[in-house]
UniProtKB/TrEMBL annotation:
This is DUF2200 domain-containing protein. It holds the Pfam family DUF2200. InterPro entries: SP1917_dom_sf (IPR023204), UCP033199 (IPR014580).
Length: 117
């Protein structure tokens, strides 16, 4: 099944970021933990993240400029009904990796487990 994900790719990361934080905080987790996940996945730091948010960078650019963690292949399981390891579109897979990690945080997993350490 091939779907057109252009709309998702063009969404500003800054538009979704507050939802990641809200999802985590609703379950007693913190913005710092959300940021730690983003930093681990992308190789970004707080300055780069702030720049991405301020410049309303889209998901396509967000992941194009990221240096993905070498352990991303250890991220498995389902998100939104899809197995992340089976998603064929490379950009959508990266977006779902991030969704999956935030989901694990909200479900109470320890940061060590989420960051595949």
């Amino acid at each position: 099944m091939k779907t057109d994900n252009t709309r998702v790719y063009k969404m500003a990361f800054s538009g979704v970021y507050p939802h990641y934080i809200a999802k985590a905080e609703k379950k007693g987790r913190t913005k710092a933990e959300v940021d730690a996940i983003i930093f681990w996945l992308t190789g970004y730091d707080s300055n780069k993240l702030r720049e991405i948010i301020n410049n309303k960078i889209d998901f396509e650019t967000f992941f194009a400029e990221a240096e993905l963690n070498p352990n991303v292949s250890k991220i498995t399981g389902t998100i939104c009904g899809y197995r992340v390891e089976d998603i064929e579109d490379p950009l959508m897979q990266k977006i779902r990796y991030l969704d999956k990690l935030i989901d694990e945080l909200a479900k109470g997993k320890t940061l060590e487990k989420i960051l595949r350490q």
